[in-house]
Amino acid sequence: MSPIAAGLLLQLTLAAVAVTIALLVAPTWRSRAVGLTSAALAAVGLATGLVAMTGATGTLTIPVVLPMDALTLSPDRLGGLFMAVVSAVGLIVSLFGMSSARRGPEGSRTAWAAMPVFLVGMQLVPAAADSVSFLLAWEIMTLGSTVLLLADHAARASVSSAGIWYSAMSQLSFFFILAGFAVLAGATGGTSFTAMATVEPGSLAANLAFVLFVLGFGGKAELVPLHVWVPRVLPEAPSHVSAAMSGAMVKIGVYGALVVCVRLLPEAPAWWGIMIMVLGGASALYGILQASVSSDLKVLLAYSTTENMGLVFLGLGASMLLRSYDATAAADTALVAALLLAVSHAAFKATLFLGAGAVIHATGERNLDRLGGLGRRMPWTAAAFGVGAMGAAALPITSGFVAEWMLLQSLIHGGRLNGEVVSVAASVAMPLAVAVIALTAGLALMTFVKAYGIAFLARPRSPEAADAREVPLLMRLALALGALMVLALGLLPGPISEAVLATVASSGTGAAAGSAETAVAAIGVSGVALPGIGAVLDPLLLTVLAALVGVPVLIAIVLSAAKHPARTNDLPWGGGGSRARPRMQYTATSYAEPLVRVFDDVLKPTRDVQVTHVGESRYLVERVQVEQKVTDVFETRFYRPMLNLLQRFGIIVRHVANGSIHRYLTYSFTALLIVLIVVSL
Amino acid sequence: MFDSVYAQLVGLCTGALLLTSALMVWRHTLLASIRLLSAQGLSLAALVAVIGVQENEVELLFVALLIVATKGVGLPWVLAHESEAGVRAIKEAPRLNPTASLLIVTILTILSYIVVSQLIGLGTSVTSHAAPIGLAMVLIGFLLLISRRRARSQLIGFLLLDNGIATIAFLTSGGVPILLEFAVSLDVLLVVVILYVFAGRMRTKFGGTDVDQLRELHD
């Protein structure tokens, strides 16, 4: 048995063991026992994924009693990459959960039994080599995550509502994916990926399947307008579960899209690429806009996930567009950038959600307007969250920066091949994409300055924040691991870039396979070069250079500050700073206020100002209360009307099925008669 | 056996089957329906025995005995035993008047002849020529299910439907394997017993088994 097959089998076994432990072990030991087993499950997944990334192959065949082909699990390099990514996230999430989900509904038997189910589902989707096992693993993943999400449903009504939205949107995604596979299977006569890849490019089946797949996987990858579940589900799930959902499960959606674009339907016409780019660009802009005005820490992170996935799809779309015009070097660079972005997003978003979990654990608050000053009380969490925020804002020394740099390089240079304009479509789309990324990057910076600054700096805005304590050791360990991953990917992007490159080279079409070798090259351990474009990035070298310049300057400032005596804080006139109270600080809402005004037309916020006067006076005000709500435009303008329409239809149709057995029997009888008459005609 | 005698015997049996089915739609008391069901079961057994003798299959004779035991004696006995004299005499207030029902029975019989001749062709053999009777029985059973209000009368419709399916099976393919026939018969017996006990409970609890009235429980 090959190492990969053994790894896959071990994952299945460990998942079964973990579920059994969750069901049997007493509550005091449950979180530790299941958490450790889940961590082991994730570690095996990580190892298997890494082995598959090196190009090793192995197949695990599971025979089934149903009259169909056996389920085949056989990860290729791309699958190995994603298996490794989701497993790495699963590992730190399990560690965090061991400590955070110890009691209460989050630590219940059901919740802990669902955890390994969720993990193994995510880890096996990238291993699937045929559509049936793909869909099976996909549903296992969805089932596990739904149960985990609903952990706290008894206490909060919003959780049940989130559960309904999540189930509905998941089933919608599943339906589209199933339909896509059905179309391909119908056209080619096989359910394995290799058989489906033989579909004729440009045929009706290929086009139809592509659109269905984009809708299906786009729903899981939180693309606008299928993202409506995100701002409900990710905030309401327990934090370690949100971290796994956003860090790992969403990547499975990306993986699905990649399987379609790279493996099943590699020869894409230009309009496919443009479609993906438009979807990605819209998601990126809309996501970051909503994130930047949100004052709920987890809603902010949820919308930021939409933004990042938008960027990944933007890269993917650009790659498809460029490939359709034979600009393969730039196409490969864009694809590598999209993959790197997905990998780095897994690292920093898992860290951020775990950081948010730590904040909630310590304060019970996720409203930024009631946080503040946590940096001093929770230094570990603050540091990890800070690193994650830097990654999300794509600042240097983090993984986000490398990926976005590469994406921008490919977009800026991609429009031209050997000095010639590739096509009109590309030369219009590329600058627009660059503009989208520029706007997104700016807003992302602002968003995460807000998230970090309001939550961790300044003074506490509520007693809960003032009394916060640093979280237990295991949670700190998980946070530190996540932050280290973000930094490692950012400072030493060489190895991961090479690995991703190998993935692209092996899974691409024949034309791409040769050129991918030259599209990206690693320099040493840390550097990345793009020979096709002529750009070089060495983060470690840059950091050392920056340190060489920055450290002496810093020392000089400190020395000169030491020479001058400290100024007194007592201002003669007593106003302002000397009596600053927490209420005088910026809040998350006030910080984002200018943005809400600028993007008023897109966000459509509702404001409510209530003024209470003192007694009868018109001029003396006792209190002013401002309430601002930013709703999701897609939900209020698109989903609500549609749901209302469906409901009205349902009420009408209720008369058809009134519960009378005679009526139902009459329906069947009439149907039988009609069938008989039709066949006898 | 001479072919002409065989054909006449098959015709007699299937005729009896159709006649009992039509009479079940016409008569409204439970007791009459039960007796008709018993007669129908015996006719079915006779049909199977005739086919068995003609084809020289001993197995079919055993099946015929089984049918006599279950459909001819067992089921009617259970039905009659479970319902007290008062219930047996109760007249069903049908959803369709007898004339309309008999008219529909005629239409259904004609339809089944048309359908079967189109679907499989009536063929030359005596048995396949009589196959439409089975389909007509199924359709009439369905009609009973729809038009009867009481749970017990609906059960009669269900049993008629089951007889129809068995008739089709014997006429077109010489019957299903004996084990399967045995299992199906027992299944039907079990269903009837359960439903009857259930209906009896419902009647003692709510005072009636009119399915339409039972809907109020759900509201």
TrEMBL record, chain A:
Residues 129-426 form the NADH:quinone oxidoreductase/Mrp antiporter transmembrane domain. InterPro entries: ComplexI-like_HydComp, ND/Mrp_TM. Keywords: Cell membrane, Membrane, Oxidoreductase, Transmembrane, Transmembrane helix. One of its GO terms (molecular function) is oxidoreductase activity. GO terms for cellular component: plasma membrane. It is a multi-pass membrane protein. The chain crosses the membrane at residues 6-26, 38-66, 78-98, 110-129, 135-151, 163-184, 204-229, 241-265, 271-289, 301-322, 334-360, 380-408, 428-452, 473-492, 540-562, 664-680. It is found in: Cell membrane; Membrane. It comes from the Bacteria. Its main location: membrane. This is Hydrogenase 4 subunit B.
TrEMBL record, chain B:
The keyword Cytoplasm does not apply. The chain crosses the membrane at residues 6-26, 33-54, 60-79, 100-120, 126-146, 155-172, 178-199. Keywords: Cell membrane, Membrane, Transmembrane, Transmembrane helix. It is a multi-pass membrane protein. One of its GO terms (cellular component) is plasma membrane. Its main location: membrane. It is found in: Cell membrane. This is Hydrogenase. It comes from Cryobacterium frigoriphilum.
